[in-house]
Specification:
Elements (H helix, E strand, L loop, with lengths): L6 H14 L3 H17 L7 H19 L27 H11 L3 H16 L6 H13 L7 H18 L17 H23 L3 H15 L8 H18 L3 H13 L10 H18 L24 H15 L1 H26 L9 H11 L5 H14 L1
Organism: Angomonas deanei
Protein name: ER-Golgi trafficking TRAPP I complex 85 kDa subunit, putative
GO cellular component, one term: TRAPPIII protein complex
Length: about 400
């Protein structure tokens, strides 16, 4: 502590008065005198190191308002801390000196604040110093100052993701839909870095209870991955993004959107439905589907019933030719008449449910014709009538029912 009449306090008051009068040059001179005095008493007062860092930060602010603040470097740790016998060069950013002084003075909160100031200063330049801002954010993560603060780490990961996509964008901007990414190593590396950092930030957001922010990160990842597809090892990453997005929607009580994402995951044939655990994943999908539809007021859906699966493991494949051949073999074993009767029975049950529950509640709702309706029309007309005539006959047959 200093006395009110001490030289240090008087110099600090002169610096504050110069700042209030917008005399930034004199304010910087007084602050340099304060640093010199703090170094003189360093042997008796080891706690002067954070004060020196504060003076360096104030000098940086004065230089910023004067337009003399040097640009940050890509290696902020290489600048070192303040030294009494080494005069600071004008090409050295004073904020970097303050950052290293705060670090040596064991003041982690001020290190975080100064690093964020450095980051914003680099991004606000024209053109922006993206490489320096990226190095500062990565240095903040590697330094361990954010180890106990998950929310700050999530914000830094989110920031780094934005920087990586800004430095090397994967597709042109202002397009309604992203183009397909080329098989280029540099572009794919940039996209993977972007995705990895966003997923790490989303996980930390989720641990902090910020599910909305986590969902925002995953939706951004999904927007970029649309241009990648499921080629190579991207399919595992794509599946992780889809399933986690669905879980977040369910956690936020957005059951419709969660069910839509899960259905897309099933339709796309992601790896989880092609492994030995496909049956368990399909049962989970059906449970979530039934729960979501019940909350929406639907007790039954035409595609909800599934046949009994006796085999301990099965796979879901999107290969149309292979699935058609296997379906044809199974149909030939069961018999065409039995399959038609079973399908018509299921359609009649769903028809009764929709007519008694859904269509009375929502008169404007219309449903496409069932498979049995087309079979009846083919039987009546032999499949030679026009669509208009078939629709008219369909209304007649429905009225007769």
């Amino acid at each position: 502590m200093y006395l009110a009449t001490s030289l240090e306090v008087l110099m600090r008051r002169c610096a504050d008065l110069s700042l209030a009068l917008h005399d930034f040059s004199n304010a910087a001179r007084y602050l340099k005198l304060c640093i010199h005095e703090l170094f003189e008493t360093m042997a008796d007062r080891p706690y002067n190191v954070p004060y020196i860092a504060a003076c360096q930060e104030a000098i940086a602010i004065c230089h910023y308002f004067d337009g003399k603040l040097a640009l940050p470097s890509a290696m902020p740790w290489s600048v070192g801390r303040s030294h009494p016998k080494v005069r600071s060069d004008s090409s050295v950013c004073r904020l970097e000196l303050a950052l290293n002084d705060y670090d040596s003075g064991k003041a982690p909160n001020y290190v975080i604040r100064t690093a964020l100031l450095l980051y914003e200063y680099g991004r606000s330049r024209t053109p922006p110093c993206n490489a320096a801002s990226k190095a500062i954010a990565e240095h903040l993560l590697r330094g361990g100052w954010l180890r106990q603060n998950k929310l700050y780490r999530a914000l830094i990961y989110d920031t780094l993701a934005s920087l990586s996509i800004f430095m090397n964008p994967p597709y042109p901007s202002n397009l309604p839909t992203p183009v397909t990414l080329p098989l280029d190593y540099s572009v794919e590396t940039s996209v993977r870095t972007y995705v990895r950092r966003l997923i790490e930030g989303a996980g930390l957001y989720r641990e902090c209870g910020a599910s909305e922010a986590s969902l925002r990160c995953y939706l951004r990842v999904q927007e970029v991955l649309r241009g990648v597809g499921q080629r190579g090892s991207w399919k595992y990453l794509y599946e992780h993004v889809l399933t986690t997005t669905a879980d977040l929607y369910f956690a936020l009580r957005e059951d419709r959107k969660g069910l839509t994402i899960l259905t897309a995951c099933l339709v796309l044939g992601t790896p989880r439905y092609r492994s030995s655990e496909a049956r368990r994943h399909l049962e989970y999908f059906m449970e979530q589907q039934q729960r979501a539809l019940k909350l929406m007021g639907y007790g039954l859906c035409p595609h909800m019933p599934l046949p009994l699966i006796d085999r301990p493991s099965f796979t879901i494949d999107r290969n149309v030719y292979m699935t058609d051949s296997e379906t044809g073999q199974a149909e030939s074993l069961v018999g065409e008449v039995a399959a038609e009767e079973e399908w018509d029975c299921m359609e009649e049950l769903t028809r009764k449910y929709y007519q008694t529950n859904v269509m009375k509640r929502y008169p404007a709702v219309t449903f496409p014709p069932y498979h049995s309706d087309h079979a009846r029309l083919n039987y009546i007309f032999g499949g030679n009538r026009t669509n208009k005539t078939q629709r008219k006959a369909l209304r007649v047959t429905k009225g007769n029912q």
